């Protein structure tokens, strides 16, 4: 399964560690420090030039961690992750 994060960016759902709301999670100093460190290390991918609303932390099988910054809200991304499961209940 794949999750569309916006623009031309699609990720494998089994690589997702977490989906976070950018506004509420950056209240924490730890979250801000994590995002700053990821950016310094070149592990962030900005999916769109629009106002960011969420970030998705992914880890590949190799152990490489990437942080995707998306303009799509966490609630929409969460709904997209269960889209196919919802169809099976019909």
How is this structure best described in words?
The chain has four helices and six strands, in the order E-E-E-H-H-E-E-E-H-H. It is an alpha+beta fold. It has one domain (2-85). The strands form two sheets. Strands 3-5-6-4 form a four-stranded mixed β-sheet. A two-stranded antiparallel sheet has the order 1-2. The radius of gyration is 13 Å and the shape is globular. The protein starts with a strand and ends with a helix. The mean pLDDT is 90.
In short:
It is built from 4 helices and 6 strands, in the order βββααβββαα.
Structural descriptors:
33% strand, alpha+beta, two-stranded antiparallel sheet, 33% helix, 90 residues, four-stranded mixed sheet, globular, 4 helices
Strand content: 25-35%
Strand order of the largest sheet: 3-5-6-4
Which regions have little confidence, pLDDT < 50, spanning 5+ residues? none
State the helix count: 4
Rounded to the nearest angstrom, the distance between the terminal CA atoms is 19 Å
Shape: globular
Topology:
Blueprint (H helix, E strand, L loop, with lengths): L1 E5 L2 E4 L3 E6 H4 L3 H12 L3 E3 L7 E6 L5 E6 L3 H8 L1 H6 L2
Parallel strand pairs: 4-6
Antiparallel strand pairs: 1-2, 3-5, 5-6
